[in-house]
Amino acid sequence: MTPAELGEAIERYVRPETFPLGIRVLADGETPPERTRRPRADLGIQVSVCQGVSMARRYGWTIAMSGEDLSCPIASVAFAFRKAPPYYAEGSLAEGMYAKDRPGALRTEAVVPRVDVPGTVLVGPLRGARFVPEVVCVYGNSAQVMRMVAAALFETGGSITSEFNARADCAEIVSRTRQTGRPQVILPCYGDRVFGQTQDHEMAFTLPYSDAESFARGLEGTHRGGVRYPVPHYLRYTADYPSTYETVKAIWREEDERSDG
């Protein structure tokens, strides 16, 4: 299944308001495809990874981000572009903001997925992808994410396990999905909302691109089974009305009974 075919299936069955994305971490020797934008060289800015993801899903751009493109220290460390200095490693970025004390801050830092070898983060819409993704990422509302969870589980059953900590969702989207090889439900972090301008109603869902065919079959299969988006409203019921309305209906029933008699 091509990225474009998967993107078409997601758009048909999930109907996200922004583009479904493909993500790849380029290894040494791999170069971004033509017409890829680099934040620093092409836009004159440095960004957070979540900003780049938002540009890709809202503008339809293909974005490549290396160390020189990043403004966010958490992403710079998580993607191995920079080493964490002692001030960082001691939990100073989390203490007092995400954790009340140093031990809690260290635990918060410890759960951020990290990589050992840096690689350029490449992200772009599936429908126009000029590269083979490693990760698929789709933002949507909770019903759309539920729809994708159902599709991911269609052929296997069971459940999806995800981790949430309100921080560094860029590492969860890219690194955790690559490391686990499993679908993930992503709770957009605080930075994604501030800098990536992700909205309050949005969540995200990721899966390895290697699951593309089974996921597409799951989208179709669950659709046939009746799990659909938009979620249909159950409308086959008789409503209860205010007492004054019911009085009118009672009058009509009496009139009908007299005319029948």
Question: Could you provide a short overview of the structure?
Answer:
With 261 residues, this protein is of the alpha+beta class. It has helices at residues 3-13, 39-43, 49-59, 73-78, 86-89, 102-110, 142-153, 169-180, 190-194, 212-225, 243-260, and strands at 21-26, 63-65, 120-125, 135-140, 184-186, 203-208.
Unreliably modeled segments: none
| Average predicted local confidence, pLDDT | 97
DSSP helix count? 11
What distance separates the N and C termini?
70 Å
Major sheet summary line: 6 strands, antiparallel
Q: Please give the radius of gyration in angstroms.
A: 24 Å
Structure write-up:
There is one protein chain. This protein is of the alpha+beta class and 261 residues long. It contains 11 helices and 6 strands. It has helices at 3-13, 39-43, 49-59, 73-78, 86-89, 102-110, 142-153, 169-180, 190-194, 212-225, 243-260, and strands at 21-26, 63-65, 120-125, 135-140, 184-186, 203-208.
